[in-house]
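WP5 quarterly update. Target: XdhC/CoxI family protein. Source organism: Roseivirga echinicomitans. Length: 335 aa.
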Amino acid sequence: MIDIVSSIRKLNREGQTLAIATVINTWKSSPRPIGSALIISENGEMTGSVSGGCVEGAVVKKAVEIIKSGKAEVVHFGITDDDAWEVGLSCGGALDVFVQPFYPEAIWTTMDELLNQDEGFMLLSTLEDNPQYSIIKANGKTTGATFEKSLLPELEQAFHEGDSKVLSSGNHFVQVFPKKPVMLLVGSAHITVELTELAHMFGFETILIDPRATFASKTQYRVKPQTIHVEWPQEVLPHLKLDKDTYAVILSHDPKIDDEALKILLKSEVAYIGALGSRKTHAKRVERLKEYGFSSEEINSIHAPIGIDIGSKLPREIALSVMAEVIKVKNGGGK
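Structure tokens (predicted):
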């Protein structure tokens, strides 16, 4: 749903009556994951996707009905349904879509504030014709409707795993809104320019660290990193939150900079560390890290040579391969 927030804000400013359709269950080769959403206006305009085009027409038709009736509904689409071919779901998968009038103003206002503040939270909805909504913040505080405390263990697990899902009760859907992932860029170079633009495109917050003022401040970025530190990594990194939502990319080509960053990052909980350089360059890096006292297991956690092998030569191609590798790790893929 994050990808349609700007459209929701625009439609709300225009005063349009809206419905929202959210994928709440999928089976087999369903084309869109749970939590994918489609916003529909009263005149049938839509933004977002619940199936990549397979069932959008039927969902929009249902949404327009629901805008008029004010009653939410869970709609099932699958190849075994009589109308499956009619709506175009021929991939062999199936999905449940919760189509509902747009959230009450108080709920959406709180959601919008939390999204602006980049605070992780969950939205708990009852799957009924008149849904009740609860917002559970990362600190455990709740707003909106009350809910049974017996749901808390499942909610905590969902938030920890980042998984939106129908709870075991069968009549509650929790949608997880994690905070933005962070791409930490060490070293300003041509590849950094391209990678920063891609990172923004995929919803990452970007932080650049480079003690070389000429490189950090004078490089011509089409999309600038949101934060720029013209300092050494060892001066900045201890003050940053280096957690599982952080993806670090080492790009300076200068061991004096790269090694200082790696010394800290290898002892942190970041989700990804990638380092630019050829196999020969990385072999020398490995020897230096061994001399610093790092274990083979720690060193092997570095993605190097960086990026998925697509035969990259140009900075933009290398950046694309790095972005693909970061997304692979973020989505649960291995090294």
